[in-house]
Structures are given as structure tokens and as C-alpha cells.
Design goal:
Blueprint lengths: L7 E2 L4 E6 L2 E6 L1 H7 L2 E5 L6 E2 L4 E7 L3 E5 L4 E6 L2 H4 L3 H4 L8 E5 L11 H8 L1
Antiparallel strand pairs: 1-2, 2-3, 3-9, 4-6, 5-8, 6-7, 8-9
Amino acid sequence: MSVPQNLKYTKDHEWVSVDGDIATIGITNFAQGELGDIVYVEIETVGETLAQEEVFGSVEAVKTVSDLFMPLSGEILEFNEALESNPELVNSDPYGEGWMIKVKISDTGELDGLLSAEVYSNMTE
């Protein structure tokens, strides 16, 4: 299973890519595989500042709805609007075109609590 080495991960199956104080966040290949065909991504928190572990949205698959949790505290700057018309991008390209939000990180110290690719891979085997 694909687990890019350059990303950080959470126990809730989100991935985090950091560029300066901006984090791009999505769900992992493992998560989209467990959910199945994604039909809707709901993010109504753009412009809000949320704490780590708070729910920032939800993803709806054919069989279930799953909450999305903030891996880091910060202000949600952007939602990937391509997901409004093409939610299946989360299935086809979870680490690329299927990204979900961009966040201005409030506390970079929280990055130390995220999982490495190696630890996350071992958790999902």
C-alpha cells in the first residue's frame, strides 16, 4: 500500500504535508480504501480556527459517513473545491488531487506528535 515517505500521518488516517506554516491535509490511501467509493466531501469550516482533534468536516461514501479530524491546530484557509464536483478524486489520487484542506498552522510543535510514514505503515498492515 502506498504511504509517501515525505508526509506525516495521524492515527485517524489523515496525512499532512507541511510547507512553511501551511499544512495541506487529506485522508490516506488506507482510509479511502476502507471507506469505499466516496460520493461527497463536506467542509464548512473554511475561515475557522480549530484545535487539534476537532472535526473539520466529513466524507460520505456509499455505505458510511466519516468525520474528518484536524491533525494540527490552525485556521482553515482553503477547501479543495474540485472535490465538490469530483469527490472521487479522494479515491483515485488521495495524496495529490484528492487533498481536502489547507491550514495555517497555529502550533508547529504539534507536528512532533504526528506519525512518520514508517510508524503509520506498521499500524495499517
